[in-house]
Write a structure and sequence with these properties.
The strands form three sheets. Strands 7-4-6-5-3-11-12 form a seven-stranded mixed beta sheet, with helices on both faces. The protein has a three-stranded antiparallel beta sheet with strand order 8-9-10. It has a two-stranded antiparallel ribbon with strand order 1-2. By secondary structure, it is of the alpha+beta class.
Length: 258
């Protein structure tokens, strides 16, 4: 609970921590876990931050990068400040960073909403996440919009790119045809470690069926290598990582307070 004297009155106002966080500048935070970062990217695009540029930076230079974007685009605005800015017709910007504590490079994404933007932003090579060929991609995954069965509004989910899905399916078929069962087991383990986003789960289910069907088609003896009983779901993950410039919480990570 935070209390302060109102400027215009003699009242003492008290608000909870959640409300207080609306007035705190956003921390520049490096997420440790890839799946959590994928969720945050989906959150940002879902809330209108559909234009994006991205890259990588060394841990030694990430603080300078964050300061640069903060100065140019006010990426550390509070949610309230960003909301007010959008209401005036101006774009709001967000910076998302991901890297494990021992990473040799940090991934970054700069995202913005539609609206009037500063001159510096006009020089960026923005892609539009809602357009085919411009989706946010990451290590063989892409973020796409889809409509769930029975839902009125579209949502956002990650799936394998067509190229990555084809590569995995070809690998499974080839391993079965050439009797490379050890390699097949490795592929089965790999696809079952796929983050359980809705669209990616459906792709994994189809790959499981492909394994069973191809095994029978090739007349292989016995049953194919054992697969997990089900395809897992991804749970909502907390923002665990470390603040840019901090050393104390870098190795073990801390949970970001929103």
């Amino acid at each position: 609970m935070f209390c302060f004297a109102a400027r215009e009155t003699a009242l003492l106002l008290c608000i909870g921590e959640a409300e207080m966080n609306q007035f705190k500048p956003a921390e520049t935070f490096i997420l440790h876990h890839k799946t959590a970062a994928m969720q945050r990217l989906a959150d940002l695009v879902r809330t209108g931050h559909r234009f994006h540029v991205s890259g990588t930076v060394s841990p030694e230079k990430v603080q300078g990068l964050a300061k640069k974007f903060t100065g140019l685009y006010q990426t550390n605005q509070t949610r309230l400040q960003a909301s007010r800015q959008r209401k005036t017709g101006e774009a709001s910007f967000r910076l998302l960073l991901q890297g494990k504590p021992d990473a040799t490079e940090i991934r970054w994404w700069l995202l913005r909403t539609d609206g009037e933007m500063p001159e510096a932003a006009k020089k960026e090579n923005w892609a539009d996440a809602t357009q085919r060929g411009q989706h946010i991609e990451w290590d063989g995954y892409e973020l796409v919009r889809h409509t769930r069965e029975g839902a009125n509004n579209p949502s956002w989910s990650w799936r394998y790119t067509k190229e990555q899905e084809a590569s995995l399916r070809d690998g499974l078929v080839n391993a079965i045809r050439t009797h490379r069962d050890d390699h097949l087991r490795q592929l089965i383990d790999s696809i079952h470690r796929t983050p359980g986003f809705a669209l990616a789960r459906e792709q994994v289910k189809k790959m499981r069926k492909l394994i069973t069907d191809e095994w029978k088609r090739r007349g292989r003896d016995g049953a194919p290598p054992e697969m997990p009983g089900r395809v897992g779901y991804v749970q909502r993950l907390a923002d665990v990582g470390h603040r840019v410039g901090a050393t104390k919480d870098r190795k073990r990570g801390v949970r970001r307070v929103k």
